[in-house]
Structure formats: structure tokens, C-alpha cells
Amino acid sequence: GDRSRSSTVVFCMSLQKMDLQNEYDTYKAQNILLLKELENLRSQLFSSNTQPVSQGDAQDRRRELLADDTVSLRQQLADLQKSNQELVEKLHDRDTYWRSRIEGELEVARSRHEHMALSTLHAEKAQLQHRLDQLESENEKLICELHRSEEAKAKLEREREYLSSEFEAGKKIIKQFADMMREKASQQCKHCLRSGNLI
């Protein structure tokens, strides 16, 4: 949109520049022709001044006509120079106007693009911040679960040690009880042998 608009402005500027350039070239060509005619009149006037005085009134009339033509050509030349100056001023004004307009268009486009870029950047930043907050929350949950797992592991380890010590104590009690029963049985057997009750 902005690029197409700028291209249209540049195209219009080029067309106006071509029109003014053609007008300037026309004035320039006319200026050259007038200068040539003025030079020819000067040459004719000089040649008439060198003619003998005996030719009389015809020669004087010719000088007057050449003088009038010279004045007319000088006036036309002055008018043409004035037109040329006006054309140069028009070109300058045209260039100033279009330069200012293009700079304004570019500034508006640049501001719009910067605003869009900043909006996009802020949106992406907000999304990243939201994702970061989610990750931090999940990380905190995982840390809490890890602490609970470590506490459960420590508790199970303590229970295992307790049960292991209880098991060892039970083994010792059973062994002592078995030894006591064997010793008692042995004493009974000896008593039976002494009393003759053993068959």
C-alpha cells in the first residue's frame, strides 16, 4: 500500500518534470532563435551604417526599420528571459513541493511500520513472558514433588532400617529360644536316662 502510493507520487512527479522540461526546452530554442535574429539585425545595421550617404532616404528608412526590429527583438528576448526565470522558479517550487510531500509520505510509512513492529514485538514479548511464567510454575511444582519424593524416600529408608533391626532382633530371639529349647530337651533326655524311663 505505502510502496504503491509512493510509486504513484514519484510517477506523477516524473510526468510534471517532463512537461516542465519540454516547456523549458521550447523557451530555450526560442531564445536561441531570437538571439540569432538579433545578431543578424545587428549585422545588417552595421552594414547599413557603412553604406554611402548618397543612397538617401531609403537607407535612412532601412535603418529605422532595423532599429525598430532590434527594439522588438530585445523586448521579446527580455520577455523570454523573464519566462525562463519564471520557469526555473516553477521547477524549484515543484521540486520543493514534491520533495516535501515524498518525505512526508516516507515519514508516515516509517512511523506506521515502526508502530506495527513495536506492536508485534510487544505481543511476542507478552507471549514469551506468559510461557516463561508457565515454565517457572511447572518448575516450582516439580521441585515440590521432588522434595516430597525425597521425604517419602527418607521415610521409607527409616522404616526399612527399623524393620531390618526388628528382623535381626527377632532372629536373635528365635535363635535364643531355639537354643533354650534344645538345652531343655537335652536336660530332659539326660534325666530320663538316669531314671530309666527311656525306652
Structure characteristics:
199 residues; mainly alpha; 94% helix
What does this structure look like?
The protein is mainly α. It has helices spanning 2-49, 57-195. α1 (2-49) packs antiparallel against α2 (57-195).
Q: How is the topology of this model organized?
A:
Layout: H1 2-49, H2 57-195
Helix pairs in contact: 1-2
Brief summary of the model shown:
By secondary structure, the chain is mainly α. It has helices spanning 2-49, 57-195.
- Distance linking N and C termini: 124 Å
Number of strands: 0
What structural class results from the helix and strand content?
mainly alpha
Largest sheet: none
Secondary-structure element order, as H and E?
Answer: HH
So what's the overall shape?
A: rod-shaped
Helix tally equals 2
Average residue-wise pLDDT: 77
Radius of gyration: 61 Å
Unreliable residue runs = none
